Amino acid sequence: MDIKKITDKFSVTPQITPDEIDAIKETGFKAIICNRPDGEGPDQPTFEEIETAAKKAGLEVAYVPVQSGMVRDEDVEAFGAALKDLPRPVLGYCRTGTRSATLWSLHEAKKRPLPEILAATKAAGYDMSGVARRIANGGRTPTDTGDAKFDVVIVGGGAGGIATAASLLRRKSDLSVAIIDPADVHYYQPGWTLVGAGVFEPDETARTMASLIPAGVKWIKAAVAAFEPKNDAVILDGCQVVKYDRLVVAPGLKLDWDAVEGLPETLGRNGVTSNYRFDLAPYTWQLVREMRAGRALFTQPPMPIKCAGAPQKAMYLSGDAWHRRGVLKNIDIQFMNAGGVLFGVKEYVPALMKYVEKYDATLNFFHNLVAIDGAAKKATFKVARPDTEPAEVTVDFDMIHVCPPQVAPDFIRVSPLADAAGWVDVDQATLRHKTYENIWSLGDVMNAPNAKTAAAARKQAPTVADNIVADIEGRSPVAAYDGYGSCPLTVERGKIVLAEFGYGGVLKPSFPKILLDGTKPSRAAWFLKERMLPPIYWKAMLKGREWLAQPEPIKVGAAE
């Protein structure tokens, strides 16, 4: 007996026998629903045998037989009617459990979001992506035939998605291109660090999506529910189906606030803030301005996260503000890092350590935030140092800047495009999907081992555009992404350590060392961050103008 729990109220299992009924009852089930017709297999007990044993044990039973591979709409209705009358929890069974899982998925379609259904069944070992379109259609077989079709469909209207659309049209203006994104507002997220330091106003980092979609690109204002890569189709909420010749996946990642117990309830008050949200970055600056004494915590979760330097940027800029106001000596700064190093590229660490010392900040490595009690102003960390037993410590705070754990979006993690960790599975050079040759991915959602930054997307977009055009023309990939990422580490107001590096931590400076040495704090790098990068983002990157972002030609003989 191999029982797979889908929810607390419903589980599934392959074919059961009368001898297993007592064990099923001891497990806690109160009812059984059979979805396998009698006579499918020579060694299959009949439903009557199962029913007799179940009733003897005091379990209720129902019989909703479904032909293998043919779950009809009326079967779903019958399943729902039977389930309604059964006490919970219920165990459903068929030959393998798949029909029972399918019936549950379609039955729940009107009550639960599609990603939640796909995640629950996937965790139980059942892949429902084949019926995702029906789930998105409220559990019924879709009947619409008015599906849209484009040469290139791009999922995500963030930095990577819009830049790729613009770069594609600059190369091949006759392409039909669509961007799928439900958001009304597009954010320049690298600016939020400076909002949290009182340098930028929040409105400087936001523009309407409609104003940024490139001319000639169709904006489909909807959320993606699922992918059907074998059918070259994207399913939207509401079951609209968009077909494509080639697909680009760039929806960004998910900030998993719920992964920290108590965090969602206290964000934006009780001294709990984060520059990772547009509406909270101003609260960071408010707390910094008002703080005159006490303890300030700055957290960093396990990798991967977007802009790995952002958690300590907040610490440095806050420390600088307190230093300028003469209150730093009264403030205990603590950096709580789930990792074991200050920064992953060693060449930049000496300069950063000088500022750690300047602000008298304490570095606490292997400390991962797991819970916050905002009212009591206490934060709990799991401490997992190498070769020691994990432990928990609780630390008082007056202010805490939180960097939330980060994962791939739900609809990506449960899709056929994802690797075992949930990220889109691509070749790290060409950014082409490893399984589906007409799919590419870029930005924070894909699994190449690069830093997740806007600067990385700026280099990735032309690479994807070049390789898609080459594919359309029947050629092999022509461009390779070298892992470039940039992290302007704002160590004080007016100075930045400009970290630029590629795969393996190899330094990738954009400027000659005589002009700008990225391993040392400089005013030139601050000028670049504050004055130059925002207009480069809005007026160059999102317009397909590839300043300092031209793709690297793929090396002859390199294997994809």
TrEMBL record:
Keywords: Transferase. One of its GO terms (molecular function) is transferase activity. It holds the Pfam family Pyr_redox_2. It comes from the Bacteria. Transmembrane segments: none annotated. The keyword Zinc-finger does not apply. The keyword rRNA-binding does not apply. Residues 150-254 form the FAD/NAD(P)-binding domain. Residues 2-109 form the Beta-lactamase hydrolase-like protein phosphatase-like domain. This is TIGR01244 family sulfur transferase.
